Each structure stands twice: as structure tokens, then as C-alpha cells.
Amino acid sequence: MPEKTSPEASRSTVAVAAGGAAELTEATVKKADQNKPRSLGQDAWRELRRSPLFWISSVLLLLFIVMAIAPGVFTDADPRQADLRGHYLSPPNWSHLFQADWFGYNQQGQSVYARTVHGARASIIVGICVTVAVTVFGGLVGMLAGYFGGWLDTLLSRITDIFFGIPLLLGGLVTLQAFTHRTVWTVVLGLTLFGWMQIARVMRGAVITQKEADFVTAARALGAGTGRILFRHILPNALGPVIVVATIALGGYISTEATLSYLGIGLQDPVISWGVDISDAQKNLRDAPHTLLVPATFLSLTVLAFILLGDAVRDALDPKLR
Length: 322
Known about the structure:
Blueprint: H1 7-35, H2 40-48, H3 52-69, H4 84-87, H5 112-148, H6 150-164, H7 168-176, H8 184-193, H9 197-210, H10 214-221, H11 226-262, H12 274-281, H13 290-317
């Protein structure tokens, strides 16, 4: 005769079976999630998290951005306070970390450390604002030229070629000479006028590639308008190379601003920037090299950080480089 199973044993067997089915279902869901295709952004972020260049550049940039937004976090010294009698070209004093005399004083008796911290704001604002402006304007020009083609492409391409013949530094010099009082926004305007061409060319090439894709053809067949096709289908897929170029160029705009300020054509007092301090320090390079080396080092690190970030983003967005 078959053995009788107690109700408790039956319930236990059912519970074990249910638990096994739940674990199997959870494992199946996890496996399905792993096999699910990732978007371009998710795939790029996954690669960026593995990149040492990305983390090194991100930490540096976070430090400089916080310095630009809240300089009071790093120093409470007044960058404009001058004491010629007591601090004229005083050398660095490293016995007091993060104090006014840590990097010494300049020819006006002002704290080099305080001016370097406060100078981050103007330099970084110029770089970010110019990058945003040239990306928007150059991206729009390239998108229109690449999508419509024909006479519009020819016209916009020839205009782009004309501006390409004018170097960024020379164009900035000529433009800023027209202003008697130069501020952050006049420098942004001068650099934007002669800095959008590379973005326009990159965007044009990306749009030409994307407009022949199957999803664009399908959207056009379904009756999607030109604006929807451009901004909902083509633009998101063409932004990758533009982001890479813009990120690398941002550091170049910061260094160009410093060069213009060094030549006396960029920012002027009372604006505090690394370029202005480098320009003022050139007269005392032999006697007090710290007045030039400190802002120049911060400038170089900022430019290097943006270049490293651009390289990391390029590697993450281009599967052929992995």
C-alpha cells in the first residue's frame, strides 16, 4: 500500500517547490536584463566607469568647479587686499597650509593663493560659456547644411570655410580691440564668433551619415515632419562626436582667454582671472617666479583635465577604439 503523506510534509514540499520556482523566475529575469540591449548612453557610461582617465579628470574638474562657484570654501582672504609694505613679492610660506601666504604675494602685495582661487571663476565661465555658444550655433549650422544639402549646404559650407581661414586667437584679438572695456561676456562673444566652425563640420558629417539610416526613412514614411526628424531622430544619434569635440575644445578656450589676457587684449582689472595674473607677473619672473608659476599651473591642470575627459568620452562613444 502507498505510504500516506502528512499534511505538514505536503505543505513543506509545496513551499520548497514554490521557493525554487521563485528563484528560477528571479534568475530568468536577471538573465533577461543582462541580455537586454543597452542604449548608447548606458554603454558609454559603463565604459567611462572603467576608465582611470575619466575619474582623474572628473576629480580635478570637480575641484576647480567648486573653487569657481564657492571660493570661500578654500580661502577667506580678500584677493584685492594689498599690502606693499609688508608683503611685496613675499615668497611662499608652506608652514601655514591653505592660508593667504601659502603661495606668497605678488607685486601689489596681494595674496597669490587668494587670487588663484578666485581667478578660477572667470576663466572657467569663459570656457563653459564659449563651448555652449559654439556648440549651439555650430551644431545648428551643421545640422541644416547636412540635412537639406543642395544650395544651402554649399552656402553654409563656404561661409564656414571663410571663417576657418581666420585663426581663433587672431580673430579674438581683432574683435576685442573694438571694445574699450572688456568683460567676461565680451571675451565670450569674441571667441564664439571664431570658434564655431569645427563643431559645424563635425555635426554636418554626422547628420549626413544619420539621415540615410533606416529609422529616419521609416519616420519619414510615417509622415514625421522635418523638425521632428531632425530633433527627435537625427540629433540624439549625431551628438556623440560633437560632445567629444566640444569637451576637448573647452580647455582650448580657457587657454585662449589666458593668452588674450596675457597680451593685454582679454580680461582687465578689476576682473580676477588666471590670464590677468600671468600677465601681471611676467615683469617679476626672475625675482618672484611663484607669482607666475602658481596661476599657470592651475591653468595647465584645468586644460589638461578637460582634454583627458574628452579623450575618455571619445573612447567610450566610439566602439572601434575599445
